[in-house]
Input
Amino acid sequence: MANRVVNASAWSLRGFHHRISSRDLSRSVKDEKEKVPGGKLRTVTEEQEVENQAAVDIFPMSGSGIDKITGIVDGREVLFELREDVTKTPTANPQPLEKSIININRSSWDMRLRWWLMTFHLPTITVFYLIMFLAVNFVFAALWSIEEGKCCGDANQSYTQIFDFAIQTSTTIGYGGYVPTGYFSNFLVVFLSFFTLILNTVFAGLLFLKFVSPSAKIEFSNVITMTNVNGIPCLEIRIGNADGSENKLLDASVRFTYEFFTNYVDEKGEQQRFAQRSNLNLLANQRNELDEIIWTLRHVVDEQSPLFGLNFEEYPGSSIIAFRLMFNATQDVTGAQVTAQTKYELDHVMVGHRFKDQVNYDPAKRTLAFDYTNFSETVPHPVWYPASNNEW
Output
């Protein structure tokens, strides 16, 4: 068993432990060049490549025989071990936190009713409209039936005939076979016409909104894996477009963030904490199009990452609340924006696992298929991960 000592003095944990505001690790793109020792001009891109090479040197390449590394993170010694199958697949999602708003004037009931109706899919709205339409006509037909002369001055009319009259009135068909008589019948005609006009208008508006609103069936992997990629630990997440080329998405982009608690002692000596959110850089956060291809996102957990040196079962790693992934793209057929997002708890991070291969390629038939059976399935795989009982 070989051991290697490296100096990985990073500043990743300062966002958790040493200071209140987390450091923004995103690198800005500069067009200018800066002077370096020796008089050589080096672009920012070249400088980043040097930094990345230094990051790679921290972890030994695969097959080196080294399975332990002692690193110095923020002046503290951290033991990294080459481990796999550290965490197991979560058996069930935790009970979601119930949230509510009190002591505030909320939006009016009609606004909230509109929001509620827009949450349903088009088939559900259509069925709901049909049920409401029939129920309204049943009620008005019953009201006409209690009159001595029924709806049209004919006491021998059956309920079926009266219901037929209600349908003709609400749809403004008016064949002329039925004519309302009396004040009560004519009052019900006016009220039924007005009520069904409102009902039809609401349904037509929702129907139009559902047709013109862009939509896409975006699939996110159920878990995040943490595995070595080319010898470097990475967090991996999968995104897929379940509709493929039938609903092609263009100019896709993602944003990966994590939320965590920051603890501190206030001026009165009391323990306080507040929640904070920070970005996690990805190797690639944009894609020209998303069709059948399954997109695997990777965050490199090197000394440039705020997660470097963290064991998720111990503080400060355990202070992470959740990871969030936001997706945005343009729907090809409508040219409108499509958005989706997902949330991962800490127990959804599969340390020492990688995703199963989901690509089925037949070179003879020149076919390429992506199997969603393996979309969230993982297998154990080595990863450089901090050992337990590190003092912070």
